[in-house]
Amino acid sequence: MYGPTHKAGAVASLRNIKTPSKVAKLVMERSGHVLLVGEGALKFARAHGFKEEDLLTEKAREIWLKWKEAMSDKDYWLSPDEKKIMAELRPYIEHYGTINCLAKDGAGVLAGVTTTSGYAFKIPGRVGDSPIIGAGLYVDNTIGAAGSTGFGEANLRTCSSFQVVQFMGQGFSPEESCLKAMQVIAEKARLQPRLLNEDGLPNFGHSFYAVNKKGEYGSAGMWSGHRYAVHDGKENKHKEEAYLFKRKK
Ligand code: GLY
């Protein structure tokens, strides 16, 4: 999403293309649309010279094979045994595959991108938050930019990147804005027992990142212990995320 034009481009359910964010950028620049999915997105990518590749790694293939051999029900169909199933599944799905990158240049131009392979064992056809403008990414050149990694469904249900930017527009700092949007997600999670741990708190990790028009930046996680990377114009550094809940040792 590009601040000065308020244009955005996205692709979803795009298979075999290594750099989908580059296809998304072309959707923004070379089409009048915002979101292309599936076969149409692939045709668009091919037309722009992208090569199809087998992106399955050997490790992922082995995990998939085990899942297949076991005729596993460890996926996102909801079952009465879901808590147990999700506990087993979690090591495979929390692989931190999503990246959000936000930028402001010297002229005050804001832009952002979020890219992901989505969750393992998702139901085919599932689209997460990353390609949905307002959920996994949002940019308003007059205010700031925000994006997210983590539990996509939570962002889809709360339009949370849009919310982070709106909080900044109300005068909250980027970090405060990330925390406020996280609070909304934590409150809404309480309506779904399957999303809560034994202490009644969200059982998923989640992070927001934000930068405002002045170049101030911040990030917040659902849980403590995460860092994010910043280049402040002078140097690269890692910063601790603010957080809602402290993880037990
Ligand atoms: N946040 C990435 C996804 O849920 O697919």
Verbal overview:
The chain is of the alpha+beta class and 249 residues long. It is 31% helix and 23% strand. A hairpin with a 5-residue loop joins β3 and β4. The protein starts with 9 loop residues before the first strand and ends with a strand. The structure holds glycine (GLY). Glycine (GLY) binds next to β6.
In short:
With 249 residues, this protein is of the alpha+beta class. The chain has seven helices and eleven strands. The protein has helices spanning 20-30, 38-47, 58-69, 82-93, 152-158, 160-169, 174-189; strands at residues 10-12, 35-37, 99-104, 110-115, 137-140, 144-150, 206-212, 217-223, 227-231, 236-240, 242-245.
Q: Which labels suit this protein?
A:
11 strands; 3 domains; binds glycine; single chain; Glutamine Phosphoribosylpyrophosphate, subunit 1, domain 1; 249 residues; alpha+beta
Layout of SSEs?
Blueprint: E1 10-12, H1 20-30, E2 35-37, H2 38-47, H3 58-69, H4 82-93, E3 99-104, E4 110-115, E5 137-140, E6 144-150, H5 152-158, H6 160-169, H7 174-189, E7 206-212, E8 217-223, E9 227-231, E10 236-240, E11 242-245
Helix pairs in contact: 6-7
The structure holds glycine (GLY).
Morphology call: globular
Helix coverage percent: 25-40%
Number of separate helices: 7
Largest sheet: 5 strands, mixed
* Terminus-to-terminus distance: 39 Å
Summed over residues and divided by their number, the pLDDT gives a mean of 92
Order of helices and strands: EHEHHHEEEEHHHEEEEE
- The CATH superfamily label of the largest domain reads (Glycosyl)asparaginase
- The CATH class of the largest domain turns out to be Alpha Beta
Whole-number count of domains? 3
